[in-house]
Design brief:
The complex is a heterodimer. In chain A, the strands form seven sheets. Chain A has a seven-stranded mixed β-sheet, with helices on both faces. In chain A, strands 7-15-14-13-8 form a five-stranded mixed β-sheet, with helices on both faces. In chain A, strands 18-26-27-28 form a four-stranded mixed β-sheet, with helices on both faces. Chain A is built from 20 helices and 28 strands. In chain A, helix 10 packs parallel to helix 19. Chain A folds into three domains: 197 residues, Alpha-Beta Complex (Aldehyde Oxidoreductase, domain 3); 317 residues, Aldehyde oxidase/xanthine dehydrogenase, molybdopterin binding domain (Aldehyde Oxidoreductase, domain 4, 2-Layer Sandwich); 146 residues, 2-Layer Sandwich (Aldehyde Oxidoreductase, domain 4), CATH 3.30.365.10. By secondary structure, chain A is of the alpha+beta class. Chain B starts with a strand and ends in an 8-residue tail after the last helix. Chain B has a five-stranded mixed β-sheet with strand order 2-1-5-3-4, with helices on both faces. Chain B has two domains: 75 residues, Beta-grasp domain (Ubiquitin-like (UB roll)), CATH 3.10.20.30; 68 residues, DNA polymerase, domain 1 (Orthogonal Bundle). By secondary structure, chain B is α+β, with helices and mostly antiparallel strands. Classes of the chains: A alpha+beta, B alpha+beta. The interface between A and B is large, with 57 and 54 residues.
């Protein structure tokens, strides 16, 4: 590795603008004539709209226009869609209720958008929004997914009888039932995965600009995947044809999944810009973010795990009810099915698995992918159950896991996934060593003397990343392929631009991707620019989520680099009068191996563009593109160990140590990878200890709609983490990368809850483990 | 409407604003200083921290009119020309930022924290002092490291944790 190549701990190139206040987020953008929007939102969880009167609002100072769903529909703007078709076990397609970007007849959750006001200032737009008169007929609301399945529950959509979106299954029901019947021991649990609100620090925002002269739209938006946004807004929402719609996602302040989806606001801002004749900017306030960003998790699960007399797992049966909220968000259907139940084998060799999942409408915000998306829910089910089983069987949690680890690869699970590589013993041992697991009993005894209850818990997670092989996901219902694109442009004087369909919103792509180029050609990373996030610059791409930008995005770059390298070698061989096969490119020059004959990189580039002296028949230029479609998912895995002390007087939990040992395959920039793990751990610990989204069950009002009510992890809530990696390269992609963006959030909640329940001696504890809940569990 | 005059990053400026204009909106919209961010509406997140007369202030808790006559320092004015402030340099060196949105507020709060603790900082103090700044990306691990390193670089003695 060079000092800036693969494996080097390089400080980030993008930091300069962020630490000096020169980042450019959507709210920082202005265009001439730009006006400001506020949305009128439903204050009710469920109501019929009897009438909307915009007259008073239209007369307010500064108001340019007040628009409703009626005009939106008159202009042919289409309903929002869910892009992944899932079929119920009876073969019927999922039941998708209509979702208009502005509601016309009925509102279905608090925050549902009904109208947009465009005014000279944001303040005027908000003042006028309050003057829009809407006559609602309130209807009974339901927020709990289990209760929404009751016969007498309020009904949300005529398309979905009984609020049921799908009743889906995977695996072999008969074989699993038989394993349960024959088991020496069965561990049974009811597991709730608490609903979360993503809370990227930058609120969502959109700036729509219709250019009448060109009949062309530009949308600046807080997106993790601007090309997907353009495709969906063009092909399904009829905003504009793709060649008349440019989508730009500039600096984006965190996503965590919540900025994958195409929301009503960006569609409406684009449309409203044409309707009103002015550029329209909308920026969510934090309460709007709480109310309308797609939420995460919200599963209720019954699980049964069967064991043989030798403590081998013989079967796993899972029955899950997943809350979808009021509408089916863009990828919502895939999260509790193909991103969840396919990971229920965990790190274990389980011969029979069956999972049944029911998706349910409720009068709450739409639920979709949030950091980990299905995989944290699966890991929580498996790792809480395995730890509980170890306690019931009276053997150590580590021993029970070792007993059941998969050790031969590739391994075909009973739930679609084919694990390509891994070494679960290695990460378990690394974590146990780092945590001094064997010394725990002494530490517990010492804590006991201080009147503190000390506990330890572990979690051995697996995830499927590198999303995803296009044909495979297509066969499972995905509406898109999940390849990635790249283009490498070598400029005439040797600097390099890499165009990528991945999008960085904190992941450090400008540095990591540059390191890949530096590694290949030996040019300094400062001579490499990463271009992303603009559909006018990058032709097409699928964006960043599912820990895919390393495994898939960088593989596309690697493929394009292969082509550039091949052509550069031909040019260099010609210039050096050598055989192409003898040319190596390193340290910023091309040379004839084993000789001192060299030509600097910039001269190779220059030769490509002057074209004065190229090999016979070669086209000028040095620019190559590639699409990379993965052949399999990647399977990052690892072991997390958490040790806590609980104050028996107050129920307050202190995390005294948190150890992570992850297998991410090959690593490009360890500093950035560690940072991704830290952030993921904080989100997972937040879920387990602090964060809970609460709707009032009677009214459907969101009670946790600000930072005064929803507990975000603060610095003092968290420890410093001890993270390390073990490494089994991924055989499925050219770089051997597995992905690291979500692991922390996936693996940490069960480790923490296993630790607290160990400390207090009561296994019945629901996340978030607030002091009140922990105290109650100790009584 | 209110007339306001203040010194921002060493430059004297004035303007006429609606009475209800917050300092953060005055800085962002009137002065184009968009490095100061708005991350919440309840003065919890700290993305809008600036220095007013040498003290860290959440610029969403203060009216522009209240800051009239004050010296205001924003993230754009923290570096000494091309030379980064030690806190900025430490955030970069220790990977104390990811998406960058909370970063300006974090850095301004950290600079103030170090100023108020000339005796030096330890991890526990830094974590407690960051109560008013929320980050969703980093898990605070590297932010804490960066602030401790900056404190040392600026002459504060690092106490044993």
């Amino acid at each position: 590795m060079g000092i800036e190549g693969i494996g080097a701990r390089v400080a980030r190139k993008e930091d300069k603008r962020f630490i000096t206040g020169l980042g450019r987020y959507v709210d920082d953008m202005t265009v001439p004539g730009m006006k400001h929007a506020a949305f009128v939102r439903s204050p009710h969880a469920h109501a019929n709209i009897r009438s909307i009167n915009v007259d008073a609002a239209s007369d307010m100072p500064g108001v340019i226009g007040v628009l409703t769903g009626r005009e939106l529909q008159a202009d042919g703007i289409g309903n929002l869609i869910c892009g992944w078709m899932v079929h119920s076990k009876d073969g019927s397609p999922m039941k998708m209720g209509a979702w208009s970007a502005l509601a016309t007849e009925k509102v279905r959750y608090v925050g549902d958008a009904v109208a947009i006001v465009v005014a000279d200032t944001k303040g005027q737009a908000r003042d006028a929004a309050e003057a829009v008169e809407i006559d609602y007929e309130e209807l009974p609301a339901i927020t709990d997914a289990v209760k929404a399945l009751d016969e007498n529950a309020p009904q949300l959509h005529p398309e979905a009888e009984g609020n049921l979106i799908y009743d889906w299954e995977i695996g072999d029901s008969a074989a699993t039932d038989s394993a349960l019947a024959d088991a020496a021991h069965v561990t049974r649990m009811k597991i709730v995965n608490n609903r979360l609100i993503p809370n990227a620090m930058e609120p969502r925002a959109a700036l729509g600009h219709y250019d009448k002269a060109e009949d062309h739209y530009t949308c600046w938006t807080t997106s993790q995947n601007p090309h997907v946004a353009r495709l969906v807004m063009s092909a399904f929402y009829n905003v504009a044809p793709e060649n008349k719609l440019r989508v730009i996602a500039p600096d984006v302040g965190g996503g965590f999944g919540s900025k994958i989806f195409i929301y009503p606001e960006e569609i409406v801002c684009l449309w409203a810009s044409k309707r009103t004749g002015v550029p329209v900017k909308w920026v969510a306030d934090r309460t709007e973010s709480f109310l309308t960003d797609a939420h995460g998790r919200d599963h209720v699960t019954e699980v049964q795990m069967a064991f043989g007399a030798d403590n081998r797992i013989t079967g796993l049966k899972v029955d899950t009810i997943a809350n979808f909220g009021a509408y089916m968000s863009l990828f919502s259907s895939s999260v509790p099915t193909y991103l969840y139940a396919t990971l229920l084998s965990g790190q274990y060799d389980i011969p029979a698995i069956h999972a049944n999942v029911r998706g349910v409408y409720t009068n709450t915000a739409p639920v979709d992918a949030y950091r980990g998306a299905g995989r944290p829910e699966a890991t929580y089910v498996v790792e809480r159950t395995v730890e509980t089983a170890a306690r019931e069987l009276g053997i150590s949690p580590a021993e029970l896991r070792r007993k059941n680890f998969i050790r031969e690869f590739p391994h075909q699970t009973p739930v679609i996934m084919n694990y390509d590589a891994g070494d679960y013993d290695a990460s378990l041992e690394a974590a146990m060593r780092e945590a001094d697991y064997d010394g725990f009993a002494a530490r517990r005894a010492e804590a006991e003397k201080r009147g503190r209850k000390r506990g330890i818990g572990m979690s051995c997670y697996i995830e499927a990343c590198g999303i995803a092989p296009s044909a495979a996901v297509g066969s499972l219902g995905a509406g898109v392929g999940l390849w990635e694109s790249a283009e490498v442009r070598v400029n005439a004087a040797g600097t390099i631009e890499v165009l990528t369909g991945s999008h960085s919103h904190g992941q450090g792509h400008e540095t990591t991707f540059s390191q890949l180029v530096a590694h290949r050609f030996g040019v300094p990373i400062e001579q490499v620019s990463i271009v992303h996030g603009d559909t006018d610059k990058v032709q097409m791409g699928m964006g960043t989520y599912g820990s895919r930008s390393g495994a898939v995005g960088m593989s596309a770059i690697a493929k394009a680099l292969d082509k550039v390298e091949a052509k550069a070698k031909k040019i260099a061989a010609h210039l050096l009068e050598a055989d192409e096969s003898d040319i190596v490119i390193e340290n910023g020059e091309a040379k004839v191996a084993g000789t001192d004959k060299t030509v600097p990189w910039f001269q190779v580039a220059l030769a490509a563009y002057t074209a004065h002296n190229l090999p016979e028949g070669m086209e000028p230029g040095l620019k190559e593109g590639a699409f990379y479609d993965p052949t399999n998912f990647t399977f990052p895995a690892g072991c997390y160990i958490c040790e806590v002390e609980v104050d028996p007087e107050t129920g307050h939990t202190d995390i005294v140590q948190f150890v992570a040992a992850d297998d991410f395959g090959n690593i490009v920039n360890p500093m950035i990878v560690e940072g991704q793990v830290h952030g993921g751990l904080a989100q997972g610990i937040g879920q387990a200890l602090l964060e809970g989204c609460h709707y009032d069950p009677a009214t459907g009002q969101l009670i946790t709609a600000s930072y005064m009510d929803y507990t975000m992890p603060r610095a003092a809530d968290l420890p410093s983490f001890r993270v390390s990696t073990t490494n089994t390269p991924c055989p499925g992609n050219p770089l051997g990368i597995k992905g690291c963006g979500e692991a922390g959030a996936i693996g940490s909640p069960p480790a923490l809850i296993n630790a607290i329940t160990d400390a207090i001696g009561n296994n019945d504890l629901t996340m978030p483990a607030t002091p009140q809940r922990v105290w109650a569990a100790m009584q | 409407m209110a007339d306001v005059t203040m010194t921002v990053n060493g430059r004297k400026i004035s303007g006429t604003v609606e009475d209800r204009t917050l300092l953060v909106h005055f800085l962002r919209e009137n002065e184009g200083l968009t490095g100061t961010h708005v991350g919440c509406d309840t003065s919890q997140c700290g993305a809008c921290v600036v220095h007013v007369d040498g003290m860290a202030v959440k610029s969403c808790t203060m009216l522009a009119a209240q800051a009239s006559g004050s010296e205001v320092l924003t993230i754009e004015g923290l570096a000494d020309g091309a030379e980064l402030h030690p806190v900025q340099a430490a955030f970069k060196e220790h990977h104390g930022l990811q998406c960058g949105f909370c970063t300006p507020g974090m850095i301004m709060a950290a600079a103030d924290m170090i100023r108020r603790h000339p005796e030096g900082l330890d991890e526990k103090t830094v974590r407690a002092e960051l109560e008013g700044n929320i980050c969703r990306c980093t898990g605070y691990h590297n932010i804490v490291k960066a602030i401790l390193a900056a404190s040392e670089a600026m002459g504060g003695k690092a106490k044993a944790a």
